[in-house]
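Look at one record.

>
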Amino acid sequence: MRRLAAVLRTAGHKVIETREPGGTPTAEKIRKILLDSGTVSLAPLAEMALMFASRAQHIAEVIEPGLAAGSIVLCDRFTDSTEAYQGSGRKLGSDAVRELHRVLCGNLQPELTLLLDSNPHASVSRARRRNKRNAKGASRHDENRFEQETRAFFGRVRDGYVAIAKREPSRVVMVDARGTPGQTHQKIVEVVRKKLKL
């Protein structure tokens, strides 16, 4: 995301980089609850509700004002992630996620969603290593809760993402992320330039 933002800024665009869960002071507090391995017993419905609480605040404080100011908003994860993780991974179903998105997010949709497709097991291993490294810093917090899940869980998550891409091919573009970071970045830039006519 940082590399894409740099390309867009060099081309003269105003860009906001943000993430979910998080992106605002309140939403970052919710992120700590959601990702901390100490909250492993959080009920799936409560987890989904917290994701949407974080998102609603994020939309109000960051996304809508950014769009209104003419910025391109790059967000690391959005409702598709909730549909994949809670809808598919936690087996809550897509309907509940999509209805909450309609009600709590005003059905706000990205113009383009990039689905970076890679080996889910390799991605989880990489995230575990990153989180372990980050947790060693004094100001860092434990964000390993999801990485403790089973292979079956991550298989369902990937299936959920693929189903979204098939359902909404005009918005969701799958990018093969099995190459080097540089190769993946080039693919992303090509897709963004073409799709958003930049």
Notes: The domain at 2-195 is CATH 3.40.50.300 (Rossmann fold). The two ends are 16 Å apart (CA to CA).
